[in-house]
Specification:
Elements lengths: L4 H17 L2 E7 H5 L9 E6 L4 H4 L6 E3 L4 E6 H9 L3 H4 L9 E4 L1 H8 L8 H47 L4 E6 L2 E6 L5 H53 L10 H8 L13 H20 L8 H18 L8
Parallel strand pairs: 2-4
Antiparallel strand pairs: 1-2, 1-5, 3-4, 6-7
Helix pairs in contact: 6-11, 7-8, 8-9, 8-10
């Protein structure tokens, strides 16, 4: 999906805020815009890298990262960023594989970092991407498996509270609410006048109606979050496979765009909106299998070249402070 003018303007304002706070060398879109899976309601995520003040390289002070208040923007100091990149952290390695138009600010030092992205790729991606994907998969299974039961249990608890009041007021005992398989049930095993029965029945029916009305938006929200969660799980495997097989960081998923958006839009959820379809399970197992094959056949080194990375860091810092040193920053 194209980036709206509103999102562009918001991003420009964030970039200005970042430049007023520190010395950035690279700023770009993150999140769904970077992946190409954004929708009109998507947040504007911004990620950046700033040059630590010179006294943090030769002194004891050190800043690692900060967030821009009132936004979804995180900026990392270059010292912290190098460590994250060397560990192939999924949330930051993607910054080196954005589309050219998704970079909002670049200095020559930022360009050098992008050009040397392969320096940070190693078999550590297996643990970083695979571990995160497996954790997300377990969360997905737990979340989808409990969602309907959670809704039913909540309604049962609401009815139970009302029943306590009804039993005291109406002087009856054999009235209870319980939850089974995600559905709330009411049982009445007592003889009573018809008008009393209808009065109690109407009161419980009103509670049921009010509860369903109040939870409809919550269920829709749960549907949206689950679909988004499913999409990002698939995207993680896709990015990891590219890194292991091609030694490439492909953040914008153009080839898989339609598939990812189909998952994002809920096409792989059952009618209840809270249960992944079998087709998604099959698709997920396919990509998990591809990831397993890629980790066994990858030509990436076991570990990154720390000496080369250290030399790159030193050359970037030296270049920056020789040609672009902000007066007053880091003095």
């Amino acid at each position: 999906m194209k980036i709206s003018e509103t999102a562009r303007k918001e991003a420009e304002g964030i970039v200005e805020d970042i430049r007023n706070i520190c010395n950035p060398i690279l700023i770009g879109f993150g999140g769904s815009i970077a992946y190409g899976t954004n929708v009109p309601t998507s947040d504007v995520d911004i990620r950046g890298i700033y040059m630590n003040p010179l006294n943090e390289f030769i002194g004891i002070n050190n800043s690692e990262q900060f967030r821009i208040p009132g936004s979804d923007a995180t900026v990392y100091g270059i010292k912290k960023m190098f460590n994250l990149l060397l560990n192939c952290n999924p949330n930051v390695i993607e910054m080196l594989g954005l589309l050219p138009e998704h970079y909002l600010f670049k200095t020559p030092e930022g360009n050098i970092l992008i050009e040397n992205y392969r320096m940070f790729l190693s078999k550590r991606a297996i643990k970083s991407f695979g571990g995160y994907a497996n954790a997300q998969m377990n969360r997905l299974i737990n979340r989808s498996g409990r969602a309907l039961e959670y809704i039913g249990a909540n309604e049962a608890r609401s009815l139970q509270k009302a029943i306590m009041s009804i039993k005291n007021r109406e002087s009856i005992q054999n009235l209870k609410a319980e939850e089974k398989d995600g559905t709330a049930y009411i049982s009445i095993n007592e003889t009573m006048p018809v008008d009393q029965y209808f009065r109690i029945n109407q009161e419980l029916a009103n509670i049921h109606s009010d509860y369903r009305s109040s939870t409809r938006n919550n269920k829709a929200s749960a549907h949206d979050k689950l679909a988004k969660h499913m999409m990002h799980l698939m995207r993680l495997y896709m990015m990891a496979i590219d890194i292991l097989e091609k030694q490439e960081i492909i953040t914008y998923r153009e080839k898989e765009h339609d598939l990812l958006m189909s998952i994002r839009n809920g096409d792989f959820l059952e009618k209840d909106g809270l249960t992944p379809k079998k087709e998604f399970e099959t698709l997920l197992l396919e990509y998990k299998g591809r990831f397993d094959h890629a980790q066994n056949s990858t030509k990436l080194p076991e570990h990154p070249d720390y000496d080369a990375a250290n030399s790159l860091m030193m050359s970037i810092v030296k270049l920056y402070y020789e040609i672009s040193c902000n007066d007053g920053y880091g003095d």
